[in-house]
Write a structure and sequence with these properties.
This protein is an alpha+beta fold. 39% of the residues lie in helices and 24% in strands. The chain has 7 helices and 9 strands, in the order ββββββββααααβααα. The strands form 3 sheets. It has a 4-stranded antiparallel β-sheet, with helices on one face. β7 and β8 form a beta hairpin.
Length: 227
């Protein structure tokens, strides 16, 4: 994980859209510089460092595979936004403190780029682990519609100790065509059955699919009943 580290050779001021942290002991302890306050130059101190952390929402996205309880696989497309709300909690998760040297005029785009590895090594991994653990316990036909909020809350509980807050999260599972057809058939049959029309419903479903697909659906249902 890398950050926008800078060596200040002249006095500057902490901007409103950046959280500025200063260390004089090579990262053992840190101090937050308040917005508008002067950033000391640290001349002559080898262990002096300034870290620039975005004070605005950052974005991330990922695509990965999950497995439901009945061994049905799906790909998940995930988009999220997050903020670093407690920089003093966040900074210990950095790597390479004291090794990088960057210009004090670093742009927003440059600073954003430093956090790409944060998304892939910390946030993405944690949210993926939570998603995989959750979906592993869910039936592919009737998993909880509120799954995004469940995953969102679990992720934020984990990120709190890191000084990170997840602001939004979209998790979209995508199934194969055959799996989608099986889910649709199982859902439709459940509706027909609730109305006392199971036989009629099964006939309608069969009329809309080939015999080979119906065999797959029926086998899937039997396997599920065994579980």
């Amino acid at each position: 994980m890398s950050f926008a580290f800078i060596f200040s050779r002249c006095s500057s001021f902490a901007p409103s859209n950046i959280q500025v942290l200063v260390t004089v002991d090579c990262g053992k302890t840190w101090k937050v510089i308040e917005t508008g306050s002067s950033i000391p130059n640290g001349v002559g101190n080898y262990c002096y460092r300034v870290v620039m952390i975005p004070n605005y929402q950052l974005v991330g996205d990922s695509r990965y595979k999950v497995t439901f309880s009945n061994n049905v696989s799906a790909f998940v497309d995930m988009d999220y936004t997050y903020s670093i709300v407690e920089p003093l909690k966040f900074i210990p998760n950095g790597r390479g403190i004291g090794s990088a040297k960057y210009n004090t005029e670093a742009s927003k785009e440059y600073i954003d780029g430093q956090f790409e590895s944060l998304e892939s090594t910390l946030l993405d991994k944690k949210i993926k682990d939570i998603c995989r653990e959750y979906f592993r316990t869910q039936d592919v036909v009737d998993f909880d519609d509120a799954f995004e909020k469940i995953i969102f809350d679990k992720a934020n509980a984990s990120f709190e100790k890191l000084g990170i807050r997840l602001e939004s999260l979209d998790v979209i599972p995508t199934f194969s065509e055959q799996t989608t057809e099986a889910i649709d058939a199982a859902t439709a049959l459940r509706i027909y059955k609730s109305k006392g029309l199971e036989k009629e419903g099964l006939d309608i479903i069969k009329s809309k699919a080939s015999s080979s697909k119906i065999i797959i659906h029926e086998n899937t249902k039997k396997e599920k009943n065994k579980e």
